[in-house]
Each structure stands twice: as structure tokens, then as C-alpha cells.
């Protein structure tokens, strides 16, 4: 169930240049059903900035009632969020949307998780859940440059991890596809989250494979009521459009017209 | 006695609070969050004769204390609304106000005729003010004569009272208001969005794919209050006021300005529970103001 | 090379940043805070033929990301401005744009004739859009024919280029813009304030003694950007854009929309150092955008 | 000189129902020239609320570079201010206006200080400075009721202090004039700050006496440029109007038309 929760900030730390990790506690955590779901955050109680910010859930600790988000402080809203301190309360709506299907990969199979920039966070909880059930995870994580790389160690603990930077300052130089080309396609499923051009490249390279992609769109309500966040679907799909917030953000490869 | 009840043409409202058209879909999503029977009424998303896919994305952009939208009237079309959306809403004890849009008079008339016959549709809201569709829409809302003729044509076929939704993008909104009153409108809803634009500072391009969009949210409230005040002095039909309502105090302000009920749009995105929250807070607010029944507030500013 | 210089009729601006009329008095107060020679220009408070005491107080009210004002053109009158205000400003190396207001054509003409002869007045800004005075003002700004005639009359006597300040409270701002261009205007300044209102929730009374006031500040920026965009496509004279500018990125947005320079109003109250701060930040912003000279930004949105 | 200072919050505590005392440190303190001057505070860096809030300076510690303000958290802006915590920075413009003239009362003379509600704070620094130079201060402080009374002890230390509440829940029941009637007019100077009706009553009762009144008006700029805060003057005064922010907020009795 979607709830509106005033969650408590219990940790806030910078994990890379302009990138922050925030741990929040509250009963909303109990409602999360799959990795890749997101929350819609009101960064301040004032009316400016007005709209909520959609941020993926990066990891969950159901027992402790805690969840972690990782976000880039770039615009007005996320910058204000980065100024929140331990003890502050944040108005969080969620969990929203449909996440990555963990059950689409069976125990013993291999999954490739491809993330770009701020698309990396939701893959962390996904990888935790996949590896926990015995799936072998290979991570391909792309960033602009070394100073914005985060969670490398955390992913390494879970499985093979390839870091790619556009400027070559860390890991492989190039794009995620540079590494993907070398990895071949001997895997059961791929999961990906990142900017549209990356998703496009991933879907194209893995054409025919089973895969799940998480999309971004500017949002209003975040719950499916305002039609702000629609994507057109490919021909042959039943609906003419899908809503990223409530039908997605994760869709099987081939559904959304990229 | 219900201190919050308001009676308007076609509408017996438990309370004067309703979600504004386009900000609440057809109710399903908010229906997952709270009981829709709590609401005074529901203004559903604009319905057009044919299904519309709307504009390309991005369709929304944030502005200071406001937002721009150019959804482009995406909706499943008259038949879809009649077949799937309205029947689902029948489970709730809440009157529906159907927002009717079109590109020419014949569209409006056809949609109005059919949708006004649905059992839970208690009133129509004639959308002559949508700034986000290329033809029709807003032109009906800027020319008094055209607005009047359209109102007449719709009144002739509608089985329920007709409210006309006014555009704020005009030099003299009272002229349009008087025209639709002369055309037989039972009430007025106002304001629709102000036409605005935002450019991406990096590229210089409009952030919204459509170029311009409609400005809503707290930023526009002073304009809305001014216009409700002006129009309520100019006509004798009731007004459902909207534009920037985000908290209970704003409702008091709109009623004082001359509205008989209010709609809440953008604030639903900020706080999805805003409508029931305001409804819950209103009685205490009346106490604070030393007022017995909410109707005592209506048009207070004129009497001073 | 000065990367920020902009040449406009009558105005050689070191940079395109100037305080907007009415938000900077006649410069003295801000002159205590920083060197006024830093500014591109200064738009002084509206000057009328006779001294005006303005409206009763309260004259301002806060709104979400904006404010309402109804100062009512308080000013010392033409003679006071000529005798005391303009001479004081001569110590600074900065062109003055004199905002001229009146209630009838003869007033405007008289003030324009006299004030345009002052040595540091390099341009006039014809205020045909003040919403806060009972007669004149805004009516000149809502009727294209009247706006054109007034522009002509003032052009005939002015010794410096004439900019006309447009009201946003109109159905079609391009019609007014084309009219004043036809009347001989050398440039346009826009936007003046949107007419708005706030009611005290306790009493139901308008917070501003005048009833309505002019809405300004970040809240109105999307409307201003849209109008600058529309007008810059409709006319061939330059625009000085304003309405909600509060940070450097906003300047980029206005120039991209089609303004050649900008004015900062309300933001001076929020941050009295906003004009010099923006001027200081602009070069780095140009670097960030990979642009050499600020003029490359002007009207960028049209070219895309 | 007027400066814009990001002052540090070094203390924030509630002193009565909805009334807070905030201690701020910064170089602005060095610029303060008289009690009764005020500062113009931007309560948050966002654009909502947009305008600064005028708040009197309640006491100054020049050596420590600290000043105290006392304010009622009622509307949007002051409520946000009350949520600021120690260590936060607040954007303060000041010192503004012309305060109470301490030199209008000589050593050994008596001054009556009459304050109402949030008009009380500036009288505290005034009383400190007057008593320091040997003026005998009598304080008449009016409040709505007992729960909003503040600084009673602080004033008592400085001199005779009469508390008045409208509902009689503390001190004398009634208005400041109720006490003033009893005190008689055997004093050199009066100083007053409070709501307009109170100032009016004080000026009327003390007609002919030397007095100084501090006024309130809604403000824009706070520095004299926007003409928002004007008051009409009485006939016979040279100017037709005065600006509360830059000509005031303190004016000699008889100048402003009340
Ligand atoms: C489902 C989903 C999950 C996301 N998960 C993450 C995450 O885990 N970490 C992270 O750093 N970012 C994530 N994003 C992107 C994040 O929402 C934007 O970076 C953020 O909204 C920008 O806000 P701002 O205040 O920095 O920018 P501003 O420029 O102030 O934003 C202005 C408006 O545009 C919207 N907006 C701007 N960029 C985007 C964008 N890329 N996507 C959607 N809306 C945008 C904002 O929400 C806001 O309404 C996610 C986006 C979506 C849709
Ligand atoms: C010179 C001066 C000194 C003051 N000193 C103090 C003080 O020491 N302690 C204190 O508690 N209050 C003081 N006030 C009053 C204080 O400024 C207002 O209570 C405060 O601005 C209200 O803001 P808000 O956010 O609570 O209310 P809101 O309702 O959010 O305010 C909306 C707008 O109205 C203005 N406003 C509302 N009430 C007043 C008022 N009474 N006077 C001026 N502007 C107002 C606000 O500044 C703001 O611009 C002083 C006012 C002036 C003019
Ligand atoms: C996303 C969005 C979609 C809207 N769609 C419609 C619509 O379909 N029909 C209509 O008459 N008004 C529509 N509106 C306008 C609102 O009903 C309302 O008039 C306006 O937003 C002002 O109210 P607010 O400030 O409370 O949002 C829409 C507004 C928004 C923000
Ligand atoms: C307090 C105040 C006084 C103003 N006085 C004048 C004026 O005398 N003449 C005028 O042309 N515009 C006047 N304006 C309008 C501004 O010059 C400007 O057009 C408007 O405020 C929009 O810009 P902003 O949002 O940056 O304030 C005034 C605005 C404010 C806020
Ligand atoms: S954000 Fe409103 S429908 Fe998706
Ligand atoms: S507040 Fe602007 S002149 Fe006083």
C-alpha cells in the first residue's frame, strides 16, 4: 500500500562528488514489495520547491524499518535534500511503482545488471535480493568520471563488478556497452536502469534476451493520476502508452518505445 | 446539522471541497489512498469525443511555488469514460462533475449530451479554457460571444446543470463570465491555468515539449482570488473557485472572495491527502473564526 | 572585450542587468550598499507631473513566491525628480531610464518632454501598465489603439528613445506590442505586474488597503517568459525583460526567450545585493554554457 | 552601515507560548547604533516565504558579537524561523532604521517604557542602556494573557516592572493605560513600542510629555526604497509622510498621524 510517511533521517553522507546516501526510517519500509520501486520525496515543507522528487529505493532493511536512497544533489530540490540533517523529518510518499522482478531469474542462473549514474542505486537492492536467492550477478556500472563513482565496494561484495567511466578516470574507459561487448550474452536475464540513450543501447545489444528496464520521466502526482509521466509503447503492445510512475518504472524489454 | 454542506445547481455537496479536473484522473489512484465518499464532489479529467493520447513529454515543469503542465487532454474518450471510469465511481457516495472538452461545438455538444446522462454525473464543467490544445479550447474561452453560443448549445442538450470553466488569460474576465451567464450557464468554475513557459538554461529550449504550458499551484492564487472576487460581483450564478489552494486557510480566502465551493488541483501532487485533510480541518477553522456554517463565509469580502 | 555589454537604442549597457522601476527608488538607498556604477542601467521610480502620496497602507502583501504591491506611484513629482533625484545620480557612470506615468496623455507628454532633457536620462520607460492607480495607467496598456496614440505623442516630444512597458493583464500581448511598435516605440519593457488580491482569512478583507495589487516575484516568471517569447517573435524592437528574476539562471532564461537585457525588481527586497551578484556571476555562467558574448544568448529559443 | 550577514544561530529557546528568543552571532552586531533598531530576516533560502521579516533587536552584546531577538512564531515565516536550530545560518540584513534616543533622558531622571506584546523586546536593550547611564526606568508591559508573558524577570532586574494582561491571568488586569493612570506623569521621558491602538492611547494620555514611539508597517525592502511602509505625518510636520523602515521605526511623539 502507498503511504505518506514522515520518515526520520538517520544517516546522511556524501558518497561521491554531489552524490549523497541518505538512510531513512519509518513504517513506509514495511510496504516495499520489490527492488526498483521508488519514493516521491517532498524535500521541504514550503511551497518552493513545490513538487516531490522521485528517487529510487537503493536498499532496504525491513527488520530495522530502514531504507537507503542515493541521489545526486544537482537541482534545487535535491540540493535542499542534501542539507537535511540527522534527526530531521522528510515527507515521503511510497513505495511507488512496480520494481524489478526477482523471480524472473532462477537460482544458479546468471543475471547482468547494467546501471548508469543515478540509475545505479536501485540495482543494489536488486543485486542483494538476487544473490541472496543464489543468482550469480554481474554488474556493469557506468559513470561520467572517477569522482562520481559510488558503491563500487558494495557491489563487489555481491559479485563481479565492472566500473566504466566516460573519461576513463576509473575502470574501463567508455560506455557500459564497451564492457557488455566483452561479457558476451551467456546469461539468463538482464536488468538495467539509467539514462534513455543507455537503455536504448542496452536493449539493442541484448535484442532477443529477457530483460527489464527502468525508466525516468518528469512526474506530477507519482501515483498514476495526472498523465505527466507517460511513455509511448511499441507497436503490438496493447496500450498506446504506459505511465512510468504506476505501470513502471520497470518494464520488460520491448514494451516502451525508446 | 452539517456545518460544511453547500447546495449548488445539481450538486448537494457534503462539503465544498473537490479535486480539480485533470489532477485526480478518474479517481482510481486516490481511491487507493482514501475513501472518495469523503469528498464534496469529484471533477474528473477532461473527456473528449475520441480518445486522445495527449502531448509529447516532458509534460510538466516545476516553477516557483507552481508548475506548468501540457498534458494535452489525454483521456480514453467518451465511450471509455462511460464504459469504464464512471461506473467504477458509482460505488462512492459522491457527485461527479464531468469536465467536457472539444475542438469544435459539435464535439462539446455530443460529449455533453451523452455524459450528462450517466447516473452519477450531476453537473458538467465546460472546459473552454484549456491552454494546451492547438485549436478550440482556449479560443472558446477568450471571446465572449463564442463562449456564450457554446454555452447555449451545450445547455440545450445537457441533462444536468452546466458550469463553465473560465480562462484567466483574458483582459476582462467579467465579460466572459457575463456572456456565459447570458448563455444559460448554471455556474462558473475558475480559474484554469495561466499560460506560461520555462526554458532550459543549458539548451535554451522550452522544458515542456509543447513549448508553453498551463501554470497552476500556489503561485497563481492571488490572480485567482482577484478574478473570483471580480466575477462574483459581476454575475448572479455561483462560482466554484480554484487556483493554488494548498491549505485550509486558502479555502477560507476563496469563499470570502465569493466562491461557493472550491476545487484543489496541483496540491494533490504535493500532498495526496490534501482534500480529506482540509475537510477534517474545516470545522475547527470555522470555530476559530466564530462562524457556525461555512456558507456564512461566501462573499464575505463584498459585504465589508 | 566586455563579454556582457549590450547596445540598445539610447543605452550602451556595460551589462544587461538593471533594477526595475519602483523597486529601487531613485537609487539612494542601494547606493549606500554598493557602487551604482556597476549596474547596466537604473530604472527609476515612476515619475508623474505632480507629486503623489500614493495609496493607503498596507501597500504590500506576501504571496507564494511573490508579493502584491499597491504603492500607488508615490513620487516627489517631476520637479522634485529633476531638482533632487536625477542630479544626485549624475555622480555614477550609469544610464538612467526614467519611468513616466500619468493619468492622461497630456501628463505623459509633459513629463516625457521635461525628463528626457535631463543629462543622465538616456531613455524613457512609458508606464502604460500600472495596475494600482484608479484611472489612466493600465487602460493605456490594454487597448492597442490607445497605446499606439500615446506612444506617438510621447515620441514626438522625447529627446531620448522611448521604451513602452507592457501590462501582462491582456488576452493578447502581441497586439499591444505591435501597436506600440507602430506608434514608434524604440523598445519594449515587460512585464509589469499581474493584478492579484489577497484576503485576510480572519476578517475576509483585502490585506492591501487598495483592494487589489500587482503581483511580482518568482511566481510570475513563467508568465513573463512566455510573453517575452511571444512578443520577441512579433516585433522587431528590442525587449528589456523582467518578472521574477531572482538569480543568474533566470537572466539566461529571459535572454534565451528573446529579451536583450533584463530588469530585477522584487528580488532586490529579498537580496539587496542581487544585481551586483548576478553581474559578478554572469561571466562564469557564460563559460559554463560555452558562450563567448552574452548577446549570443538573445532569442536562442527561437533558433531551435 | 547596513550589511547583509549570514549570522549563526547560537541559541534558540521558547520564552513563552509561541514566543522564541534567538541569539545570533555575526559582524552585523558591530554596526548597531541604538536600541530599537531592527533587522530584516530571510527565514529560509527558498523563495517561499519570499519576503524578509522585520524583527527588533532585543539585546546586544557587542564584545561577544552577539545579539538577541524575541519573536512570536505566528505566521509562515516566523514559524520557519522558530524551527532553525543552533548551528544553522540565517540571512540577516541590518541594522535598520533609527532607534530610541537614549540621550533624551539624563542621568537621574525617570523614563517610562511602555511595551505591548511583541513590542516589548526592543525596550529591553533600551532599558539596559538607560539604566546603565543612571536613568531610572519604570516598565509597563502589556500582554494578552499569562502564557505569553516573557522577560518579566529580566526587566525586574533593571527597574520597577508592571505586567498587565488583558484577561488578568497575570499582573494587573486590563491595558497598559490601566497602570499608567496610577503611575502619574512624574517622569522625564516615555518610550513605547506596541500595536497602533496602544501607541495611540499612550500618546493621548501623555499628551504634552516628551516621548518616542516605535511603529510597525508591512515592509518590502526595509531600507527606504520601495515606499511600502509609509505613515502619514501630522499636520505641521515638514514631510507629508515618513518611512517606518528608514525614517523610523522610532519617531518623536506627535510626528506620525495615528
Ligand atoms: C523513477 C525514478 C527514479 C529515480 N531515482 C533516482 C535515484 O535513485 N537517484 C537520483 O539521484 N535520481 C533519481 N531519479 C532522478 C531524480 O528524480 C531527479 O534527478 C530529480 O528529480 C531532480 O530534482 P532536482 O531538484 O535536482 O532538479 P530540478 O531541476 O530542481 O527539478 C525540477 C523538476 O524536474 C524534475 N526532474 C528533473 N530531472 C529529472 C529526472 N531526471 N527525472 C525525473 N524528474 C526530473 C524534478 O523532479 C522536478 O519536478 C529518479 C527519477 C525517476 C523518475
Ligand atoms: C520595525 C518592526 C519591528 C518588529 N519587531 C518585532 C519583534 O521584535 N518581535 C516580533 O515578534 N515581531 C516584530 N515585528 C512584527 C513582525 O515583523 C511580524 O510579526 C512578522 O513579520 C510576521 O511574519 P509571519 O511570518 O509570522 O507572518 P505572515 O503572515 O506569514 O507574514 C506575511 C507578511 O506580512 C508581514 N507582516 C505580518 N505581520 C506584520 C506586522 N505586525 N508588522 C510588519 N509586517 C508584518 C510579514 O513581514 C510578511 O511580509 C516587528 C515589525 C516591525 C515593522
Ligand atoms: C496536470 C494538470 C492537468 C489538468 N487538466 C485539466 C483538464 O483536463 N481540464 C481542466 O478543465 N483543467 C485541467 N487542469 C486545470 C485544473 O483543473 C485547475 O483549474 C488549475 O490547475 C488551477 O488549480 P490548482 O492551482 O489548484 O492546480 C489541469 C491542471 C493540472 C496541473
Ligand atoms: C513595490 C513595487 C513597486 C513598483 N513600482 C513600479 C513603478 O513605479 N513603475 C513601474 O513601471 N513598475 C513598477 N513596479 C513593477 C516592476 O518594475 C516590475 O515590472 C515587476 O515588479 C516585475 O518584476 P519583478 O518580478 O522582478 O519584481 C513595481 C513593483 C514593485 C514590487
Ligand atoms: S506522475 Fe502522475 S501519472 Fe505518473
Ligand atoms: S520597506 Fe521599503 S521603503 Fe520601507
Automatic annotation (TrEMBL), chains A, D:
Binds 1 FAD per subunit. Belongs to the PyrK family. The lineage of its organism: Bacteria, Bacillati, Bacillota, Bacilli, Bacillales. SUPFAM superfamilies: Ferredoxin reductase-like, C-terminal NADP-linked domain, Riboflavin synthase domain-like. The keyword rRNA-binding does not apply. Residues 2-102 form the FAD-binding FR-type domain. It comes from Sporosarcina limicola. It comes from the Bacteria. Its cofactor is FAD; [2Fe-2S] cluster. One of its GO terms (molecular function) is 2 iron, 2 sulfur cluster binding. This is Dihydroorotate dehydrogenase B (NAD(+)), electron transfer subunit. Signal peptide: none annotated. Heterotetramer of 2 PyrK and 2 PyrD type B subunits. InterPro entries: Cyt_c3_hydrogenase_gsu (IPR012165), Dihydroorotate_DH_ele_sf (IPR037117), Dihydroorotate_DH_Fe-S-bd (IPR019480), Dihydroorotate_DHASE_ETsu (IPR023455), FAD-bd_FR_type (IPR017927), FNR_nucleotide-bd (IPR039261), OxRdtase_FAD/NAD-bd (IPR001433), PyrK_electron_transfer (IPR050353). FAD binds at residues 53-56, 70-72, 77-78. [2Fe-2S] cluster binds at residues 221, 226, 229, 245. Pfam families: DHODB_Fe-S_bind, NAD_binding_1. One of its GO terms (biological process) is 'de novo' UMP biosynthetic process. Pathway: Pyrimidine metabolism; UMP biosynthesis via de novo pathway; orotate from (S)-dihydroorotate (NAD(+) route): step 1/1. Keywords: 2Fe-2S, Electron transport, FAD, Flavoprotein, Iron, Iron-sulfur, Metal-binding, Pyrimidine biosynthesis, Transport. PROSITE patterns: FAD_FR. The gene is pyrK. Responsible for channeling the electrons from the oxidation of dihydroorotate from the FMN redox center in the PyrD type B subunit to the ultimate electron acceptor NAD(+).
From TrEMBL, chains B, C:
It is found in: Cytoplasm. It catalyses: (S)-dihydroorotate + A = orotate + AH2; (S)-dihydroorotate + NAD(+) = orotate + NADH + H(+). Its main location: cytoplasm. Residues 4-286 form the Dihydroorotate dehydrogenase catalytic domain. It is an enzyme of class 1 (oxidoreductase). Its cofactor is FMN. FMN binds at residues 21, 45-46, 99, 127, 165, 191, 217, 243-244, 265-266. One of its GO terms (molecular function) is dihydroorotate dehydrogenase (NAD+) activity. Coiled coil: none annotated. The keyword Ligase does not apply. The active site is at residue 130. Its EC number is 1.3.-.-. Belongs to the dihydroorotate dehydrogenase family. Type 1 subfamily. NCBIfam families: PRK07259.1, pyrD_sub1_fam. Catalyzes the conversion of dihydroorotate to orotate with NAD(+) as electron acceptor. PANTHER family: DIHYDROOROTATE DEHYDROGENASE (FUMARATE), DIHYDROOROTATE DEHYDROGENASE (QUINONE), MITOCHONDRIAL-RELATED. This is Dihydroorotate dehydrogenase. It comes from Sporosarcina limicola. The gene is pyrD.
Amino acid at each position: 500500500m502507498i503511504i505518506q510517511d514522515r520518515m526520520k533521517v538517520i544517516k546522511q553522507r556524501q558518497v561521491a562528488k554531489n552524490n549523497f546516501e541518505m538512510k531513512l526510517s519509518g513504517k513506509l519500509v514495511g510496504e516495499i514489495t520489490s527492488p526498483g520501486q521508488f519514493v516521491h520525496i517532498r524535500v521541504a515543507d514550503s511551497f518552493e520547491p513545490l513538487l516531490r522528487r522521485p528517487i529510487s529505493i537503493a536498499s532496504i532493511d525491513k527488520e530495522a524499518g530502514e531504507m537507503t536512497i542515493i541521489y545526486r544533489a544537482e537541482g534545487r530540490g535535491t540540493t535542499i535534500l542534501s542539507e537535511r540533517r540527522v534527526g530531521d523529518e522528510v515527507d515521503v510518499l511510497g513505495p511507488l511503482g512496480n520494481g524489478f522482478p526477482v523471480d524472473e531469474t532462477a537460482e544458479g542462473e546468471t543475471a547482468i545488471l547494467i546501471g548508469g549514474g543515478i540509475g545505479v542505486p536501485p540495482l543494489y537492492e536488486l543485486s542483494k535480493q538476487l544473490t541472496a536467492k543464489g543468482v550469480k550477478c554481474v554488474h556493469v556500472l557506468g559513470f561520467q568520471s572517477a569522482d562520481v563513482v559510488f558503491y563500487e565496494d558494495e557491489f563487489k561484495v555481491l559479485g563481479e563488478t565492472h566500473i566504466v567511466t566516460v573519461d576513463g578516470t576509473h575502470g574501463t574507459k567508455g560506455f557500459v556497452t564497451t564492457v557488455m561487448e566483452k561479457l558476451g550474452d551467456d546469461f539468463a536475464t538482464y536488468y538495467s536502469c539509467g539514462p534513455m540513450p543507455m537503455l536504448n543501447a542496452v536493449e539493442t545489444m541484448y535484442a532477443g534476451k529477457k530483460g527489464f528496464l527502468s525508466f525516468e520521466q518528469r512526474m506530477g502526482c507519482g501515483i498514476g493520476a495526472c498523465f505527466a509521466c507517460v511513455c509511448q509503447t511499441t507497436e503490438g503492445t496493447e496500450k498506446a502508452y504506459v505511465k512510468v510512475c504506476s505501470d513502471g518504472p520497470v518494464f520488460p524489454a520491448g514494451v516502451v518505445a525508446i | 446539522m452539517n456545518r460544511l454542506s453547500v447546495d449548488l445547481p445539481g450538486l448537494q455537496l457534503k462539503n465544498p471541497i473537490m479535486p480539480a479536473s485533470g489532477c485526480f484522473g478518474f479517481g482510481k489512484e486516490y481511491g487507493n489512498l482514501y475513501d472518495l465518499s469523503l469528498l464534496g464532489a469529484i471533477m474528473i479529467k477532461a473527456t473528449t469525443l475520441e480518445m486522445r493520447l495527449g502531448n509529447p513529454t516532458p509534460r510538466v515543469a516545476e516553477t516557483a511555488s507552481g508548475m506548468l503542465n501540457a498534458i494535452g487532454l489525454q483521456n480514453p474518450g467518451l465511450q471509455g469514460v462511460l464504459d469504464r471510469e464512471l461506473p467504477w465511481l458509482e460505488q462512492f457516495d459522491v457527485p461527479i462533475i464531468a469536465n467536457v472538452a472539444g475542438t469544435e461545438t459539435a464535439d462539446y455538444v455530443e460529449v455533453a449530451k451523452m455524459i450528462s446522462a450517466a447516473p452519477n454525473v450531476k453537473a458538467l464543467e465546460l472546459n473552454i479554457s484549456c491552454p494546451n490544445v492547438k485549436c478550440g479550447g482556449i479560443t472558446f474561452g477568450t471571446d465572449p460571444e463564442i463562449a456564450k453560443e457554446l454555452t447555449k448549445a451545450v445547455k440545450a442538450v445537457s441533462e444536468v446543470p452546466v458550469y463553465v470553466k473560465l480562462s484567466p488569460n483574458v483582459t476582462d474576465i467579467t465579460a466572459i463570465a457575463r456572456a456565459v451567464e447570458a448563455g444559460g450557464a448554471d455556474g462558473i468554475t475558475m480559474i484554469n491555468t495561466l499560460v506560461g513557459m520555462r526554458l532550459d538554461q543549458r539548451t535554451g529550449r522550452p522544458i515542456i515539449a509543447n513549448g508553453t504550458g498551463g501554470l497552476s499551484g500556489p503561485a497563481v492564487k492571488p490572480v485567482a482570488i482577484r478574478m473570483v472576487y471580480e466575477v462574483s460581483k459581476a454575475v448572479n450564478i455561483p462560482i466554484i473557485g480554484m487556483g493554488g489552494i494548498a491549505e485550509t486557510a486558502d479555502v477560507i480566502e476563496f469563499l470570502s472572495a465569493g466562491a461557493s465551493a472550491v476545487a484543489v488541483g496541483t496540491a494533490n501532487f504535493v500532498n495526496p491527502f490534501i482534500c480529506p485533510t482540509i475537510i477534517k480541518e474545516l470545522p475547527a477553522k470555522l470555530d476559530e473564526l466564530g462562524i457556525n456554517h461555512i456558507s456564512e463565509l461566501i462573499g464575505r469580502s463584498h459585504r465589508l
